[in-house]
Design brief:
About 75% of the residues lie in helices and about 0% in strands. By secondary structure, the protein is mainly α. Among the domains are: about 150 residues, no CATH class; about 60 residues, Winged helix-like DNA-binding domain superfamily/Winged helix DNA-binding domain (Arc Repressor Mutant, subunit A). It comes from Nocardia seriolae.
Length: about 700
């Protein structure tokens, strides 16, 4: 729909403001409806044309491809002189070539189409349908536009076109076509079936408000038991995305229980979704009850096992405390996801891969789901896939890539009303802000889910508390960080995803707060996970945490090698900082400086300002010193350049410097570009080592 609005507006600012408010559920023929104040400017010019020329324009406006041969055929059917369109070309309204008829501006097309009477448009669409008989989709769309009342033959043609549209133009167009097919359907049961499909496809397209409206209409139509369950599923999905998790879960349970005996194959996916909602709410007891219901469904064993695989791994990890069994099941699900063409299963596998730290699997599966959903117009799942991919980039330490991907997901989720997905994205951006030491931004982002959903979403609550603890850790508030992390660790509902990262930070907070005894339970859990996973990611966390508690330099070295090999550069920098601090205390300042500089450069590249500051302080303590800028060198800088480099050396970003000095970020970058050669530095890391007179 966004693409269609942009095409229709053709850069007109007023059109961009007005068109999104119009009826976007029209069939993909004819232009979008045009507000009167936009069309009135063209009506006088159109009205000065002859009737034949206006009819020629109307055919061109209703025929989306701009095919001159088809336009000629239709005009002949209507008994209109085919040369009449030349009058419109002379008036400057259209351009005609052998290949196409083009309106000089798309808004003229809309003014022509909606300036005609309904009877005129109806006649044109009927003629177009007859002329397009060899093109089933276009024939169906034009027939539907020409039909008043009900007509099962046209409705059936349009249903077939809608099904094909799923693969060709996406779910939004398919939903609009199926909705029109339902309106043309005389039989109430068939109308209910078609309306249900239109509702499901509207939700798949991320058009939740429209899906809700269609669901309310569909409720008034006759549906069988399976149809009612499907409708409840759509309504539950809408509630879930709005952040009403408890209401969503209860609706899913009710729908699944209704069909469990007569249609167990429909009940299974509903129980899976209910289990997912329970898990997010931090309610493992209900999730376990869901598993018991799944196990009793009368399904073929292989089908039942496939359903259980979607939830068994996570439940065995946390609810059953069976790490080895849970990891085995999760890896089997990941393998299935890699071979699946279903984006829902790809995302299930990606989510489970995140549980065990298989970040490359998360990236691969999420990217596949992203590509698939984009091609199919599955906007709702697209934003979820983007969040998953962004979270993987974040855990891999690719902060800029993570920020870009999550921001893209947030734009979509805001547009389509995905409150749940939006809050998850805000949580990941809060963690990025925490790493960068931006306290105000972190608090602002965390406030969104708290305002909109309270504590229903336990997963987001844990992620937000983790972000605050990372902020505290970076800013040196170690006891506060430790208290937050310890509270999370002692909760009876163990979270999914990023758990080892949280435990890692708990150990560091305990050591820095001089309370290493409080790290004992977390360290024991890290060791269990590392042994069960057998992955470089988990082993590196265990080695680093062990080195912190036991002051073991060899463990630091091994952790650094593993993190470098896996490309975990943010984690590598955190470990290098800890190792550098340890080496300095062990009176090995030369080697300490090597690792501290590595940490500083990585933190600087990621704009992790609190960590840049700490690495800088440690470097000075290790004897690196702070090179002093001689007055004569500083004199080579302009007054503005000196202001900029002083702020940049203190760790301020270009945007922060720009705001402080009332400049643009581009101008700040230009000043730094000119100042670096004068100071003999090439980057911010080297600049941070200088002191200015």
């Amino acid at each position: 729909m966004r693409t269609r609005v942009l095409q229709e507006a053709a850069g007109n600012p007023l059109a961009l403001l007005e068109l999104p408010r119009m009826d976007l559920d029209a069939l993909p023929i004819g232009p979008l409806p045009l507000p009167h104040r936009l069309s009135s400017g063209f009506q006088q010019q159109i009205g000065e044309l002859s009737g034949a020329a206006r009819t020629g324009l109307l055919v061109a406006a209703a025929e989306t491809a701009g095919d001159p041969l088809l336009t000629r055929l239709v005009l002949e059917r209507l008994g209109v002189d085919c040369d009449a369109v030349a009058e419109a070309e002379c008036a400057g309204l259209i351009d005609i070539s052998a290949q196409a008829i083009r309106f000089r501006h798309p808004l003229v097309r809309a003014a022509v189409y909606y300036g005609a009477t309904f009877q005129e448009r109806q006649a044109v669409h009927a003629a177009l349908a007859a002329a397009c008989a060899d093109d089933a989709d276009r024939c169906a769309w034009h027939s539907a536009a020409a039909t008043v009342g009900t007509d099962e033959n046209v409705a059936d043609q349009l249903e077939s076109a809608a099904v094909r549209a799923v693969n060709r133009t996406g779910y939004a167009a398919a939903s609009a076509a199926m909705e029109r097919s339902a309106a043309l359907t005389p039989d109430q049961e068939t109308r209910g079936r078609r309306m249900l499909m239109a509702t499901e496809w509207a939700a798949a397209a991320g058009r939740y408000q429209r899906a809700g409206e269609l669901a309310r209409q569909t409720k008034r139509l006759p549906l069988d038991l399976g149809g009612r369950a499907r409708l409840l599923w759509v309504e539950a999905s809408i509630e879930f995305e709005a952040g009403n998790l408890r209401k969503s879960r209860d609706a899913l349970f009710a729908a699944a229980d209704d069909v469990a005996i007569v249609e167990p194959e429909r009940a299974g996916p509903l129980y899976i979704e209910a289990c997912h909602a329970s898990w997010i709410m931090g309610d493992p007891a209900t999730a376990l009850d869901t598993r018991r219901k799944l196990e009793t469904l009368h399904l073929p064993p292989d089908q039942r096992m496939a359903l259980l695989a979607a939830i068994n791994g996570p439940l065995r990890l946390h609810a059953d405390a069976d790490l080895t069994g849970g990891i085995t099941e999760i890896r089997a699900t990941i393998a299935v996801g890699h071979h699946s063409a279903d984006p829902a299963l790809m995302l299930v596998a990606a989510g489970q891969a995140m549980l065990i730290g298989d970040l490359e699997d998360v990236r691969t599966l999420s990217q596949r789901a992203l590509d698939f959903t984009q091609n199919q117009g599955m906007i709702a799942r697209f934003s979820i896939a983007a969040i998953y991919l962004g979270s993987a980039e974040l855990m891999l330490g690719r902060l800029w890539e993570a920020e870009d991907m999550v921001t893209q997901a947030l734009r979509i989720s805001r547009d389509i009303g995905q409150g749940n997905t939006m809050a998850s994205g805000e949580g990941y951006l809060a963690l990025i802000a925490a790493i960068r030491g931006d306290e105000a931004r972190c608090q602002e982002l965390i406030g969104y889910p708290r305002r909109t959903r309270g504590q229903d979403n336990f997963i987001d609550h844990v992620h937000n508390e983790w972000a605050l603890s990372v902020l505290d850790l970076g800013l040196g508030r170690y006891e506060t960080a430790l208290d937050r992390l310890d509270t999370l660790h002692r909760t009876p509902n163990r979270i999914r995803g990023h758990w080892l990262h949280l435990l890692r930070d708990l150990v560091e907070a305990a050591v820095r707060a001089h309370q290493p005894d409080r790290a004992g339970p977390a360290m024991a859990e890290i060791e269990r996970w590392s042994l069960a996973l057998g992955s470089p990611f988990a082993e590196a966390i265990a080695l680093r945490s062990r080195a912190l508690l036991n002051s073991n330099g060899d463990d630091y070295v091994r952790a650094l090698k593993l993190q470098a090999a896996e490309g975990l550069w943010y984690d590598h920098a955190r470990t290098a900082l800890l190792y550098g601090e340890w080496l300095r205390r062990e009176r090995n300042p030369g080697e300490a400086r090597t690792h501290l500089r590595q940490a500083l450069e990585t933190f600087d590249r990621l704009d992790a300002r609190p960590w840049v500051a700490r690495a800088h302080i440690e470097l000075q303590a290790a004897g690196a010193g702070t090179p002093h800028v001689e007055p004569k060198t500083a004199a080579a800088l302009t007054a503005q350049e000196l202001q900029v480099v002083r702020l940049a050396a203190s760790g301020a970003t270009n945007r922060e410097i720009a705001a402080k000095l009332f400049l643009s970020p581009r101008t700040v970058g230009h000043h730094l570009y000119r100042a670096f050669p004068k100071l003999g530095v090439t980057n911010r890391t080297e600049l941070a080592r200088l002191s200015f007179p």
